[in-house]
Design a protein that fits this description.
elongated, three-stranded antiparallel sheet, mainly alpha, 2 domains
Length: 292
């Protein structure tokens, strides 16, 4: 089926593009998935990013956000080591998993078989999960366990409309008619991958313009350029880390971050006066648009 071939090819190109991106794309995408599985807001994404940079900011996360994040980290670790996702550990994401009557069918979909391609298993998992959140999470972890992505960086069907067409396609799949759900889900996956590909391309292409804006600062650009390079690579920075990495004073590091913020390249994520965290705004802003 051509859609299967197109989706498999696009998925491979997406993972390669994330790895090759000249900025820390995987960090933003991983925490974007975490935000989408919780409150689904930009504010949540910023909280997760800040806590990633400095554990001090874990306190800003709700208990549910913290529990889901930690559970996803553990499950990603398990699946990268060849294990299967644990329905028990993901009950905080969806309490219905504890007593789900079709749990045996869902666990069967999670087990790899030579007879079924990975993408076909994703469709089966999403169709038999008790909720969209559980289905997306389990599908994303299956991509990791199958080696299709290095990290949990893609919720494959998250942008699909939750409408009558989706409900009817799921009912048909569970009844044995796979065509409607396969067409609907793969179309959604291809659209999502195309959007992410374009975002990665646009962020990368925009770096030359960022360099031009920095050059316009004159002499200040000389000292600030290493800070921009570090921000791109790490995606997240604190002032003490920047000072330590560049071997400069903390006031000098703060001046660099202020310059990058004024250029629109950095964004302060915590809203605090102290213990602040800055993120690489072109990546956070563009990829975070999925939360709007």
């Amino acid at each position: 089926m051509k859609q299967f071939e197109d989706a498999a090819d696009s998925l491979a190109r997406f993972d390669a593009a994330v790895t090759a991106a000249p900025f820390g794309a995987a960090i933003v995408l991983r925490l974007l998935c975490t935000a989408q599985l919780t409150t689904g807001t930009r504010e949540a994404l910023h909280r997760f990013l800040a806590a990633e940079a400095d554990p001090f900011h874990d306190a800003a996360l709700t208990p549910t956000e913290r529990g889901i994040r930690d559970g996803l980290v553990e499950e990603e670790r398990r699946t990268r080591s060849g294990g299967l996702p644990s329905l028990t550990r993901l009950q905080l994401l969806d309490p219905a998993l504890e007593t789900y009557p079709a749990a045996d069918r869902l666990e069967a979909a999670l087990r790899p078989t030579e007879a079924r391609a990975v993408l076909d298993r994703l469709l089966d998992i999403a169709a038999w999960a008790p909720s969209r959140a559980a289905g997306e999470c389990l599908a994303a972890l299956t991509l990791v366990s199958a080696g299709r992505t290095d990290h949990l960086i893609l919720l494959p069907f998250i942008t699909m409309e939750d409408d009558d067409a989706r409900a009817a396609a799921l009912d048909a799949w569970r009844a044995g008619d796979e065509a409607p759900w396969r067409t609907l889900a793969l179309t959604s996956l291809l659209s999502r991958l195309a959007t992410l590909h374009e975002a990665l391309r646009a962020i990368t292409a925009g770096q030359s313009r960022e360099d031009d804006r920095l050059t316009a600062l004159g002499r200040a650009a000389v000292t600030t350029r290493p800070a921009l390079a570090l921000l791109r690579r790490n995606v997240l920075l604190t002032m003490p880390i920047l000072a330590e990495d560049l071997g400069c004073s903390r006031p000098a590091a703060q001046q660099m971050l202020d310059r990058l913020t004024s250029l629109g390249v950095a964004r302060e994520l915590t809203g605090r006066g102290r213990d602040r965290v800055w993120g690489y705004e072109p990546a956070i802003g563009r990829l975070g648009a999925a939360l709007e």
